[in-house]
Design a protein that fits this description.
seven-stranded mixed sheet; about 20% strand; 11 helices
Length: about 325
């Protein structure tokens, strides 16, 4: 297993090559996880992925997690949490008798997203493909996505994400933004300012995914920013201790203690500072590619608008098993 630097994405980000994910052993899977921790974005191209099955993709990603990762799994039970605000009385379809139409369709859509892959914890579909009735069968079904990170305005977030390009991915693009180098490039005064800032997150319709259906919009709120006015520090550390910005500006309503005008001015300053080619890696997909990326201080976006034929499988996970392994801290320091 070898690595080479990715273009863009500052000082971080690598491609892993000269391997085959179908046949690597447990030690090599652990090595891949450590590389992901330290580099924030890892690309494994199709020829090194080796055409792995969904079960193998799930096995690799869940080999790094602890049992505490269950909150990140998209299961029927997870989608059932959407119904907590309704009465306990259920109708013949198993849904609350007083559920509104949009939430009913949202839960049904949630079931379709995990239909057939419930046995693979943490996995969901990302696709614009429709079923015979024209219903969406995956998350983020329509149009481009602005800069975001998954669960960005939630109190608890999955720190790692994996994407596997299954079919129809060739020709589409995903971009990744390194806030760690951007933070280090700030003046000492601005670093001190950012260190003290706490972002107040609210779900803002149309900000993350302009043009999605009302059902997917509500599903986005549940997964991205379920509780308005959640407070998250602007400066955080990745699981490997890399300091950067949790700058998910598509749900940052205001900074705590700042006026709206001051908050808007600060967001614009940081956007101008960070949105530079030197911090951005753009991945042009080929079917079979697999990407692993940080979800704490790394933003990503999808500039591709037509995903009607593209099917990705997505894993959300933590790295607890790697971080608690004997010698984990020394291993990261030695690299």
């Amino acid at each position: 297993m070898k690595t080479r630097k990715l273009p863009g994405f500052g000082s971080l980000g690598v491609e892993v090559y000269d391997t085959n994910l179908r046949t690597i052993d447990a030690d090599e899977i652990r090595q891949l996880g450590m590389i992901s921790l330290e580099q924030l974005v890892v690309v494994v191209r199709a020829e090194s992925v080796g055409g792995i099955s969904l079960e193998r993709f799930n096995e690799i990603c869940t080999s790094w997690v602890s049992d505490r990762d269950s909150d990140f799994a998209y299961t029927r039970e997870t989608f059932g949490k959407m119904l907590g605000k309704y009465s306990a009385e259920r109708g013949p379809d198993g849904l609350p008798v007083n559920i509104d139409d949009v939430d009913r369709r949202m839960v049904e859509e949630g079931y379709r997203i995990v239909n057939g892959i419930e046995h693979l914890p943490g996995m969901s579909r990302v696709t614009g493909k429709r079923d015979e009735q024209g219903n969406a069968t995956g998350m983020f079904a329509d149009g481009e996505l602005d800069w975001h990170c998954n669960n960005q305005g939630a109190a608890r977030r999955a720190p790692g994400v994996g994407l596997l390009g299954w079919e129809g991915a060739t020709g589409s693009r995903t971009e990744f933004l390194n806030t760690a180098d951007a933070y280090q490039a700030l003046s000492p005064e601005w670093q001190r300012t950012c260190d003290e800032l706490v972002a107040v997150h609210r779900f803002m319709p149309g900000a993350i995914a302009p043009g999605v259906s009302d059902v997917q919009e509500r599903l986005l709120k549940f997964t991205m920013c379920p509780d308005d006015d959640t407070e998250i520090p602007l400066v955080v550390e990745s699981p490997a201790g890399i300091k950067g910005l949790h700058f998910a500006f598509t749900s940052i309503y205001q900074f705590k203690g700042m006026s709206q005008a001051e908050s808007d001015e600060t967001v614009q300053f940081l956007k101008n500072h960070i949105m530079r080619d030197e911090y951005i890696y753009g991945h042009d997909w080929v079917d079979g590619d697999m990407l692993l990326f940080d979800n704490t201080i790394t933003l990503h976006r999808r500039p591709t608008k037509d995903c009607s034929k593209r099917l990705m499988y997505r894993m959300a996970f933590n790295y607890d098993r790697l971080l608690t392994a004997p010698g984990a801290a020394n291993s990261m320091q030695a690299r």
